[in-house]
Every structure is written in structure tokens, then in C-alpha cells.
Predict the structure of Carboxyl-terminal protease.
Amino acid sequence: MTIHSLRKILIILVLSVSVFLGGYGLGREGYKADIKKFPKVTITRETPVDRQELNFSLFWRVWDTLTAKYFDKSELNPAAMVYGAIRGMVSAVGDPYTVFLEPNENKVVQEDLNGSFEGIGIQIGFKGTQLAVIAPLPDSPAEAAGVKAGDFIIGIKDEGKNIERGTVGISLPEAVQAIRGRAGTKVTLTLLREGETEPIVVEIARKELNVPTLIVTYVGEGGSLAHVKLLKFGGETEEEWQKTVREISRKEGVTAVILDVRNNPGGYLQGAVDVASEFLKTGLVVVSEERSDGTKNDFKVERIGLLLNTPLVVLVNGGSASASEILAGALRDARGVQLVGEKTFGKGTIQEPLQLDGGSGLHITIARWLTPSGFWVNGEGLTPDFVVEDDPETAEDEQLEKAIELLK
């Protein structure tokens, strides 16, 4: 794979997969194929010449038995059955971030990255095999309902969709589709939270969400510190980032930057490289390693940044995942930037999005990524130089206050 093609790699959040909950396939319970949902497919039993050694007889025996004996023939949708077979094949790999997306699911992912969608505003991923909240979006219905980064989602209920299910074995696309919905409708989540002995049940009304890439404010004495809250690495990140950097560089009295990637679930790999290049003169930003043969591709600083000598602190927490961890790890390894906050999420794999026939898509894990020092964050996360927990009982942002203290 060329460096050029790797530039287009998407690191899923949740599908970070972010996905911004939002989502994909219907929950397994309550699922009913809609013939309008699937494009027409041509069914053929001819095996490609290069696949002649594979035995598909069992597949076709099951297909024929369903066709012949299932009591309600109107429920048998060949296209839906083909998509189901493909989904099962991909899920058999056992990687929650390698997923097949039907056309409607694939469309949702693009909407999420563009920042406009209807939902409750949470980003999800997996902690081990358990569905978990990476982070609620700022000012979202999920945040207002008290959903927190790190919550495990163990149940999803939506009476309008006829869905009531647990999340054991759920795929990321299924979870997103079950939770996403039209503005004004409601979904109920059952959560497990560290430190709580009983499940937490929250009913959340969905709404239309427009998520910016970043928000900048000025804090500290005389507004001398630019607090840049980077919410995601999406399609519009580069343009918004460049505009913000020009503003900071021209603003009188700004002496330092606090780069805040708390609750940022990731997104495009190239976005992390672009932002890191603003603060690094030369060198590595991230290394991708193809696990099959150990081939490595180095992503280096690509341009002359405007903030190369600007003092910097990075804020992180358990909702900082994927591209956010790439950025934080690069800045610490290559420039010695201090990290403040809580241990990051720990997602260290890279997914490439492929567009398939009929609008469907395949997100496939193609590599793992390493920080410049060679550290693999997967399942471990980055431990901050200054571990500071934010006290939800106070109005003060203790992590931000620590960053301000360090930059005085």
C-alpha cells in the first residue's frame, strides 16, 4: 500500500466507530428486511476460477432449504440474505472494527464525519468485547442526560423501532443503527458505570446535531492562553484548524496553547498528522505497521508550522481515542509536551474505508500504529504526565486549571 493511499485512511471510532451515535444496521431483535432498503442483486452459483478449491455446497444447501421450507416466503429477500452472509463472513474475523456496511449504514458514517446528523450525540467503541461510551458530545442530549465517558452500554431499547436487546455480541454498526434515529424520537440506554453498584437507565430524546471540528477560547491571565478544544478529525478539520491557527498567531498577547483532545474519538489519520505538524519542526508523527509482514510506513512532519516554538500542554482523558492518541503521543515523544488529565482510551489499530458496489462499504483493519518511540497504545492508552481527575461535583475544570498552572 502506498503512502498516498494511506493518507486517506480512516481510524474508526466508533467507529468513532466514532461514531457519533448515529448509526448503522438494525438491532437483531425487531429486525425485518425492507425490500426498498436493498439494491437488486444477481444471484449466481458460478464460482470464480481462482476460488474453485472452496466448497460452497453447505452455503447453497442452507439457502435452498430456507427457500423451500420457510413458512412465509414474503420474508425471504435475496439481497438481504446476501448482505447477511457477507456481514457474517466479516464478523467471523473477530475484530469489532472490521465491519461490512450496508448502503444506509455507509451513508451514516459519511454524515458523521461531515459533522451533521440526528441522534443523541455519543461516540462509542469497545472496551475488550463490551460496547462502551468513548465520550458524549458537548451540549448533546447524551451529555444532558448524564452519560459519561467509560460507561458500558449493556442494553438498548427503542419502542418505535421495536428494539429491546442486550449488547453481548452486538457489532458496532448494529449498535449505532439501534441508537440513532430521527430528531424527537427517544431511545433508552442501560449503562454500567465504574463505582456504581446498580445499572443506570437513561431515556434520551434525539435531536439534530451539527458538530464543529474545534472551539477556541482564551483563558489565563489576560486571555494569554489559547484553549483549543479539538472535537474530532473529520473532513472539514484542516480548513477549520488553519483558520484557528492564523487567528492565534495574529492575536496579541497569546503566549501559549492548550490543545484539548478530551473526548475526541479520532477520525482521519491525516488530520492528526496535519495538526502535529503545526507544532513539530521535523521527524516522525506516527508509524503504521502491517501486522502480516511487519512492513512499516512512517508519517512525518509535512510542512512548516506556525506554532513551532509556542509553549504547549495537551489535555487528554478516557474519551481521547485513535487519532487523538496519535497526536498526543507524537507531541510528547517528539517534543516533550506534557499531557494532563486521565489515561486515554487505547485504540491502536488503523482501518481503511473501501467503497463497494451499490453504495455499501467495508472498513477493514489494515495495520496497527505506534508512537514515534514505538509504543502501541492498544488496550493500554497513554498515561498523562500529570494525572488529574475532573471533579463532576464542582464547576471548576481541574484539568484545564492544571494546564494553565503549567504554562504560567
Notes: Residues 103 and 360 are 4 Å apart (CA to CA). The longest strand covers residues 361-370.
